[in-house]
Amino acid sequence: MLNANYVALRVIDARRAFSLLCKQSGRNQPRAEIVSLEDGRYVSYDFDDWRELSDFRKEFEPAEHDWVRTVRFDIVVPRIVRVLTYSRLPKQEVKLNRRNIYARDGSRCQYCGKRFASSELSLDHVVPRSRGGENTWQNIVCCCVKCNVRKGGRTPEDAGLTLMRRPVKPRRSPVIRVKLSDSKYHSWRQFLDHAYWDVELK
Q1: Is residue 28 part of a domain?
Q2: 24 CB contacts (<8 Å, ≥6 apart)?
Q3: Residues of the chain where predicted confidence (pLDDT) is lower than 50
Q4: What is the pLDDT of residues 152-176, one digit of tens each?
Q5: CATH number of residue 178's parent domain
Q6: In whole angstroms, what is the distance from residue 29 CA to residue 129 CA?
Q7: What total of structural domains would you count in the chain?
Q8: Is there a contact between 98 and 82 (Cβ–Cβ < 8 Å)?
Q9: Residues 72 and 109 in one domain
Q10: What pLDDT is recorded for position 185?
Q11: Which of 15, 69, 161, 163 has its CA at a distance of 20 to 30 angstroms from the CA of residue 2?
């Protein structure tokens, strides 16, 4: 869902999307519209026009879309809904959690450089908690079991290890970047800045 300024707010389900599309503001104006990527450009639709377009897509390209089936008609689930009456900007924060750190580091140990399955990786505090290291993007990296044991409660320098790269806080959710490789969500790439996943590390 986008706000009136085309800034991504959150992911909503189809039921919520159609609820917004069918509601009207106090001036009998629609509260939301559908934004669709077509031939490299974004086109806006109200609910009635989207229903008409859905009839065409049902006839010629039904397998390329997700559908909601009602008693009277079938309608394509829109990928992007823009709320016309809401312009507040969302907080530009990416949660510090295990999934986002694994995605940021590409499931690669930041000391030996090898890629591992998530079950074979752990999180390492570059500056150990016992030495005042904090839970921050700049102080937590993916680490394999072997390197984690070797490092122990020491700094990388003390353990003779070198970080592949300096850990930083990503501007956008690294998990969402992975999800958007699915062609179904191609139209979101320009708008989506962040999403929230799992429990925040504290």
Answers
A1: yes
A2: 30, 31
A3: 178, 180, 193-201
A4: 999 999 999 999 999 999 877 665 5
A5: 1.10.30
A6: 55
A7: 2
A8: no
A9: no
A10: 60
A11: 69
Q: How far apart are CA 56 and CA 51, in angstroms?
A: 9
Residues 43 and 116 in one domain: no
Give the range of the structural domain holding residue 181, as residue numbers without chain letter.
Answer: 92-202
Judge whether 69 and 44 are in contact, CB under 8 Å: no
CA-based torsion, 88, 2, 32, 43: positive or negative: positive
Residue 5 lies inside a defined structural domain of this protein: no
41 and 109 share one domain: no
**Given 49, 83, 117, which residue is the final one in a domain?**
83
Q: Which of 53, 83, 113 is the last residue of a domain?
A: 83
| Amino acid making up residue 111 | Y
Q: Is residue 126 part of a domain?
A: yes
Q: Which of 19, 164, 21 minimizes the C-alpha distance to 84?
A: 21
What HEC string does the chain produce? CECCCCCECCCCCHHHHHHHHHCECCCCCECEEEEEEECCEEEEECHHHHHHHHHHHHHHCHHHCCEEECCCCEEECCCEEEECCCCCCCCCCCCCCHHHHHHHCCCECCCCCCECCHHHEEEEECCCHHHCCCCCCCCEEEEEHHHHHHHCCCCHHHHCCCCCCCCCCCCCCHHHHHHCCCHHHHHHCCCCCCCCCCCCCC
Res 196: pLDDT: 35
